[in-house]
Amino acid sequence: AVNFPWPDPEKYIDPELCKKLVAEAPEGKTVMGMLWACHFQDTCAAFGMQTALMNMVADPEMVHYVDDHIVAFYEKALKIFLEATKGKVHAILIGDDVGSQRGLMISPKLVSEFVIPGAKKLIDIAHSYGVKIVYHSCGSIVDAIPLLIEAGVDAIHPIQAKAAGMQPDNLKEKFYGKVAFCGGVDTQDLLPFGKPEEVAAKVKELRTIFPTGLIISPSHEA
């Protein structure tokens, strides 16, 4: 790891192309960029998932060392993009998949140690440019949402409708007014197999539960 040639995003990101792509967005619309910046997932990929998760307990210093380099890459990439598009982008989507269908893949304590610090660095950069952060994680992340709110996340994507604890009424009860949400229309069963009137009923239900604070959309994909 010490001798690894860590990549430099400046070699791969063309600021002029960033400007050009953002300029193509329709006038009067909210513009959101997607950095993704999945430092936790990248760190797991660097070791292999099983080894990474074991090393978070057995050799956390090594995990932090690799993760810090990956986060530094994304910090620089985000600054390049936001400088190039200053005043033209309203939100950035970043994220890491930390949830399964039934709960978090790692404990809230490990989320706090290995996921949140890197995310907060990116959140703080975006906020310094007046840009909102939409944070993505699949699955049941209800136990991590307080940590994301504390880190400064503005909106959470998605509401994975069939994941444990991610029911819209539960999220409203716990977090209404503290963070916005995006999603809620199930893509596991409802959209692929449901009838149009069932989809319409779900949208109406979501509008009733969340009169504000929810961007209604498929729980995955746009």
Describe the structure.
The structure is a single chain. This protein is an alpha/beta fold and 222 residues long. It is built from ten helices and six strands, in the order H-E-H-H-H-E-H-H-E-H-E-H-E-H-H-E. It has a six-stranded parallel beta sheet. Strand 3, helix 7 (145-151) and strand 4 form a beta-alpha-beta unit. Helix 2 (39-47) crosses helix 3 (49-58) and helix 4 packs parallel to helix 6 (116-128).
* Beta strands, count: 6
Spatial strand arrangement across the major sheet? 1-2-3-4-5-6
Tertiary shape:
globular
- End-to-end span in angstroms? 38 Å
Radius of gyration: 18 Å
Largest sheet: 6 strands, parallel
Mean pLDDT: 96
Structural class: alpha/beta
Uncertain segments: none
The sequence of SSEs as H and E is HEHHHEHHEHEHEHHE
Strand residue content: 5-15%
Helix content percent band:
40-55%
- Please report the number of helical segments: 10
